[in-house]
């Protein structure tokens, strides 16, 4: 939990700088790329987080990464600060928190729709349009299949949950029948 709070603080700091300079989208690309690099190549993350390596070696590795990516000085300083403060391991979480802030600035929210069977593109577009109308935001939709809901869909966007599954309706019917007894 503490790591998530720290990641959010770092993300908020670099996001504020990015907004001031109108470069927050570029910063997002850099952070997402680095987070992907850390996940796909654990040896890179190890090179800048392992306490067995001297600090100057870790800083040189991060400077090499920064130079190869061609990022601006602000992000480079931010990444070097993470290494110096021994917080470079938080980069994937920082990137995730930063992405959420970018989406918030662009009025985008993420939603998930669970259905009993695979949804076709036309139905996905219709559900997305309805969710956008309900939330007043642009919705990026992901879908998944769960046959245990029997039929219908369960849509979640932020705090909004719309449960139109047959499983839930049957459970409600069961409770109402029990209540009459």
Give the SSE map.
Blueprint: H1 2-20, H2 24-40, H3 42-49, H4 55-69, H5 73-84, H6 91-105, E1 108-115, H7 121-135, E2 138-145, E3 153-157, E4 160-163, H8 166-180
Parallel strand pairs: 1-2
Antiparallel strand pairs: 1-3, 3-4
Can I get a quick summary?
With 181 residues, the protein is of the alpha+beta class. It has 8 helices and 4 strands.
Backbone structural class:
alpha+beta
pLDDT under 50 segments (min length 5)? none
Shape: elongated
Order of helices and strands: HHHHHHEHEEEH
What's the rounded overall pLDDT mean? 93
Quaternary structure state of the chains depicted: single chain
Total count of helical runs of at least 4 residues: 8
- Characterize the largest beta sheet: strand count, sense, and whether it forms a barrel: 4 strands, mixed
Look at the structure and give the CATH class of the largest domain: Mainly Alpha
In the CATH hierarchy, the architecture of the largest domain is Orthogonal Bundle
- How far the N terminus sits from the C terminus, by CA atoms, comes to 46 Å
Radius of gyration equals 22 Å
User: Beta-strand percentage?
Assistant: 5-15%
Strand order of the largest sheet: 2-1-3-4
| CATH superfamily membership of the largest domain | N-terminal domain of the delta subunit of the F1F0-ATP synthase
Number of strands: 4
How does this model look, in words?
By secondary structure, the chain is an alpha+beta fold. It has 2 domains: 2-104, Orthogonal Bundle (Peroxidase, domain 1), CATH 1.10.520; 108-180, Glutaredoxin (3-Layer(aba) Sandwich), CATH 3.40.30. It is built from 8 helices and 4 strands; from the N terminus they run ααααααβαβββα. The longest helix is centred in the first third of the chain and has 19 residues, at 2-20.
């Amino acid at each position: 939990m503490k790591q998530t709070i720290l990641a959010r603080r770092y993300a908020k700091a670099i996001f504020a700088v990015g907004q001031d300079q109108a470069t927050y989208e570029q910063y997002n690309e850099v952070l997402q790329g680095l987070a992907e690099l850390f996940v796909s190549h654990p040896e890179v993350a190890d090179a800048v987080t392992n306490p067995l390596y001297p600090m100057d070696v870790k800083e040189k590795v991060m400077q090499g990464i920064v130079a190869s990516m061609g990022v601006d000085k602000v992000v480079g300083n931010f990444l070097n600060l993470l290494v110096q403060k021994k917080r470079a391991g938080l980069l994937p979480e920082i990137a995730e928190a930063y992405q959420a802030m970018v989406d918030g600035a662009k009025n985008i929210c993420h939603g998930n729709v669970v259905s009993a069977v695979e949804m076709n593109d036309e139905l996905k577009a219709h559900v997305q349009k309805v969710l956008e109308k309900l939330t007043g935001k642009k919705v990026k939709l992901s879908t998944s299949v769960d046959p245990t809901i029997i039929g219908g869909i369960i849509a979640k966007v932020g705090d909004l949950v719309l449960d139109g599954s047959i499983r839930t309706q049957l459970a409600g019917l069961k409770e109402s029948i029990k209540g009459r007894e």
